[in-house]
Design goal:
Largest sheet: 6 strands, antiparallel
Order of helices and strands: HHHHEEHEEEHHHHEHEEHHEEEHHHEEHE
Number of helices: 16
Oligomer: single chain
CATH class of one domain: Alpha Beta
């Protein structure tokens, strides 16, 4: 909104035209209790298909379980609110978030037939609607990626999610390797080269379904620190910089603390999302413990080759706190991540890590990071007490960062919150592009049954 020299007049136009009177909407707002969260009221009054959302991520029994028939397993698969399927242009199944590939092989065959039909007509299929489900299709070289959602997300949001899954595949294989595999044998089964990465794809897909703010906003969350403290951490990090280093990051519970990089070589949020997914969501790297040396392709940086990532986790409890459990909360895990183009630089980066930890401890900065990671995010009452705000997300476009309140836990969300933010973003984007006369609350026009570029 533009600045104004007539705030009372502007307020009148937003209310009822007379500042002395209170509109019905204002009186209704005043009558609400600040102790009653809007989301809680909506959930109590509306019975939707989201009632069983907590079971969305339960595994579907495989065919070896004799207590389940194929028909029962298929019905359970159909009951899921969100699906992701990846297959080759030859119809070979590669990945499905729910159900084993034997269960849904026929469904993938139908998808391949429909997509191929439109490609044969030189009019690629982008998406279609069937009942209350929206199907979105993306073609990336020899791969077809399909998202099926009943969560009300827009096509652009689903397409961004499919692109992230494709980037996850490239982070394992690189683009030249993927291209060469299918150039030589179009019917190749890609499951074998990708074996072991299913957990990475599934953890990434689940973060989409849970409504991860990072994915939704295309931004990163930074650990909340004073500017002077962050400056001291950056200086300690730079002081220990090794020659082979390309990127260096300190991350606490998936929140960025510090990053050092060459000038004009920024890290793309999508690449950082892949790194954070590997470290903090899938659990594979943390489970290995100690130090890790991982070849990794960062597609937004360079999809044609590998970088080498050194990862070391630091104890996530302040030194003056006696740990009550041997398991560190994911929100408190601290990792030092050092990335180099040199595959022989392990010992150089290991030495740098040791020097960084010594310097941070010497200045008392490591305990400061640990304390900030343990401390929970502020609540609505801390920021705006006695208001009717249930929650908010804030994104700085210039800094590609976001910030949100403590109530939003993507691992504990139920249906309404999952839909609220994606739908709000869709509404705001549509309202910004809408012709004059169309309001924010007006219903969106129904999407076409089949959508193609033509």
């Amino acid at each position: 909104m533009a600045p104004t020299l007539r705030p009372p007049g502007d307020l009148e136009s937003l209310l009822v035209g007379d500042m002395a009177k209170k509109s019905p909407a204002w009186m209704l707002l005043r009558s609400q209790s600040a102790a009653v969260l809007p989301f809680e009221t909506i959930r109590a009054e509306q019975k939707t298909s989201f009632a069983g959302f907590e079971r969305e991520f339960d595994d579907i029994p495989d065919e070896s379980d004799r207590d389940w028939s194929d028909g029962d397993r298929l019905q359970l698969w159909k009951s899921k609110l969100k699906h992701y399927m990846i297959l080759s242009s030859a119809g070979k199944p590669i990945y499905s978030r729910h159900g084993d590939l034997g269960l849904i092989n026929s469904s993938m065959g139908v998808a391949q037939t429909i997509i191929s039909f439109y490609e044969g007509a030189k009019n690629p299929l982008l998406g279609f609607t069937a009942g209350d489900a929206r199907f979105v299709v993306t073609t990336e070289g020899p791969l077809y990626l399909v998202a099926i959602s009943r969560l009300g997300e827009s096509d652009s949001q689903l397409r961004a999610q499919l692109n992230a899954l494709y980037m996850q595949i490239l982070s394992t294989l690189t683009l030249p390797v993927l291209t060469n595999i299918f150039a030589n044998r179009p019917s190749t089964d890609l499951r074998r080269p990708l074996q072991g990465t299913e957990t990475l794809l599934s953890s990434l897909a689940d973060s989409f379904t849970r409504g991860s703010p990072s994915v939704l906003l295309g931004a990163l969350e930074c650990l909340r620190l004073r500017k002077s403290h962050r400056h001291s951490i950056n200086n300690a990090f730079l002081k220990a910089r090794a020659n082979p280093l390309l990127y260096g990051l300190i991350v606490a519970g998936g929140r960025l603390v510090s990053v050092i990089r060459p000038r004009r070589h920024s890290l793309h949020p999508s690449d950082l999302q892949l790194i954070f997914n590997m470290l903090f969501e899938s659990g594979g790297i943390k489970a290995a413990g100690g130090e890790n040396w991982i070849p990794l392709c960062l597609p937004a940086f360079n999809s044609r080759g590998y970088l080498y990532m050194y990862v070391s986790f630091v104890d996530g409890q302040p030194d003056d706190v006696v740990p009550t459990t041997n398991v560190t909360d994911p929100d408190e895990e601290i990792a030092i991540i050092l990335i180099s183009p040199d595959k022989e630089s392990f010992f150089d980066l290991q030495k740098m890590r040791d020097e960084v930890v010594v310097e941070l401890k010497k200045r008392g900065l490591l305990d400061l990071i640990k304390g900030a990671a343990v401390k929970s995010r502020p609540s609505v009452a801390d920021i705006a007490p006695s208001t009717h705000i249930s929650h908010f997300l804030f994104k700085s476009k210039a800094n590609v960062q976001f910030w949100f309140l403590s109530q939003y836990n993507i691992h504990q969300q139920t249906g309404y919150e999952i839909r609220a933010y994606p739908l709000a973003i869709v509404k705001l984007s549509f309202a910004a592009k809408a012709p004059q006369g169309r309001g924010f609350g007006d219903p969106d026009p129904d999407p076409p049954p089949f959508e193609t570029p033509g």
